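Chain and backbone:
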Amino acid sequence: MPILRHIAHLGHPVLRGATGTIQDPAEPAIQALIDDMLATMIEAGGVGIAATQVYEPLRLFIVASRPNPRYPLAPSMEPIPMLNPELLWQSEETEKAWEGCLSVPGIRGPVPRSSRIGVRYLTRHGDPREEELAGFIARIFQHEYDHISGLVFLDRVENNRELVSEREYLRMVSAG
């Protein structure tokens, strides 16, 4: 049965450190970690989560867009655990949109990201996948990929004066 993990907050060294490659996706500890990450992400209202955010310095994250109180306009998809993900290419076209982070609670900021990306990863069963992602799903991948690269979304905000509180962000979104 999955357990809810504590989420590392900005300032903890695990969020800025190196991450290790997963050698055996079938390892019971890796499968349990994926289940724990899914449960933790859902409980916290996230649309993605990286292993570093639950204090595990591994190249693993989950992309799981769905509408929720933190992201009311998010598209729905089945959660995808991505092991040893790679960013193969990025479009020159970018979009600037609001991001938040479970590890940086209470703050939102506009972040420029590539509109389309090419990615490669292993599924939780070790099957290789290569695909193109676009829009919000591409944004989640890039956000989580930053986590396994020692970055947080605040590192990508162009102007700190554009940062807002979570409450102000939700007010802006609900106002349309």
